[in-house]
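[SOLVED] Predicted holo structure with flavin-adenine dinucleotide

Edit: marking solved, answer below. Original request kept for reference. I posted the sequence and ligand SMILES and asked for the 3D complex as structure tokens.
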Amino acid sequence: MISKDRTFDAIVLGAGGAGLMCAAVAGQRGRRVLLIDHAPQPGKKILISGGGRCNFTNLQTAPDRFLSANPHFAKSALGRYRPEDFIALVDGHRIAWHEKTLGQLFCDGSARQIVHMLMEECAKGGVRIALGGPVAGVAHSDGRFTVRHGEETASAPALVIATGGPSIPKMGATGFAYDLARQFGLNVVDPRPALVPLTLSAEDRLFRELSGVSADVVARAGKIAFREAALFTHRGLSGPAILQISSYWRQCEEIGIDFLPGRAADWAVAAKRARPKTHFHTLLGEVLPGRLAEALAKKIGLWGELANLPDEKLRAALARLADWRFRPNGSEGFAKAEVTAGGIDTADLSSRTMEARRVPGFYAIGEALDVTGWLGGYNFQWAWASGWAAGQVL
Ligand SMILES: Cc1cc2nc3c(=O)[nH]c(=O)nc-3n(C[C@H](O)[C@H](O)[C@H](O)COP(=O)(O)OP(=O)(O)OC[C@H]3O[C@@H](n4cnc5c(N)ncnc54)[C@H](O)[C@@H]3O)c2cc1C
């Protein structure tokens, strides 16, 4: 516990990836840092991330893999603290890791190792950690921030907001960062669930009956496309391709799914010439799961031997399968969203230090900001990079 009226050089609110990194870096620079979290343990999202193995970074990290109202904001921090910097830290702690796919790096063992590593780094920096009590209020006067935390009070000339976004509230996630930002006159870009399953309406019931079926597809929203697996669920669509596209999707918009990525437009016509007795749904079943192939053939209304199906109908069917239109009626919301898009407006912050331009000493880092990465380790890389950037200047 902290004793009454303690003073620090910096107080960091939120002991997730960003807050732990920031506190460790500042502490190791000789700053007296207090790290506060209302949860009884640090890094809860790290622990559940990557199926318990934490997809801690992505080798393909680049600013264009992040969504933000200001696409340039993330460049500075991402450029100065790179995936290889975090890998060096992980290697220094002898944590074994592997690349899974698409540049995604995971622990061989457990996400616990990452939390343990960050806690060790905090300990090296002499960071004081106060867990398990709510933040009752933050005041600012005479250039100092005073934080009431449980029965305690602490103050510092610098305050870092690292309390993340409201995705997965049952894990203790809150919109606290936004309330605090607004209290200090910062703008908040409308938060919305991202990396989230999408839901389908009754007219797409046929697809809901495919719950559990997955396929390699290209999912599109506007000009953005991802080739990965899509999964049908009892409520709609999920899987990496859908989670990725959900971050770009807006209510009432359509998404397009190419169920036959890489197939030529006259693939079915060529098959008809070569094997006329083959049924259309059987042909689709050669490249798609059988249940999905049948459902799609039924939806299109093309059934029977290829020989009996006109070429133009086969071509039209392939065109539809290459850009199948869904109009999701919503998403599974913050309860299921891996991250929150939107957040504290980066226009109010320095991209080099994460400090608010009009409130000296007030910093915001990590997911609390309007910077949202793709699926695949990008969000942790942002947490590390933004935490490191602020930690350098506290
Ligand atoms: C299921 C799941 C799996 C994920 N897997 C990955 C992955 O493999 N790779 C990846 O890159 N990203 C992944 N993410 C996203 C990633 O976890 C987040 O982007 C990242 O944790 C954000 O870090 P942060 O420190 O900004 O916020 P958080 O990790 O959310 O930390 C915020 C901290 O603030 C605390 N807090 C909140 N409100 C208050 C308050 N009022 N007072 C005091 N403390 C408060 C919370 O308890 C928490 O400890 C995953 C997310 C989820 C939900």
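OP edit: Residues 13-19, 37-39, 44-45, 48-50, 54-55, 135, 162-164, 167-168, 172-174, 176, 338-339, 366-368, 377-380, 383 surround flavin-adenine dinucleotide (CB under 6 Å). Thanks to everyone who chimed in.
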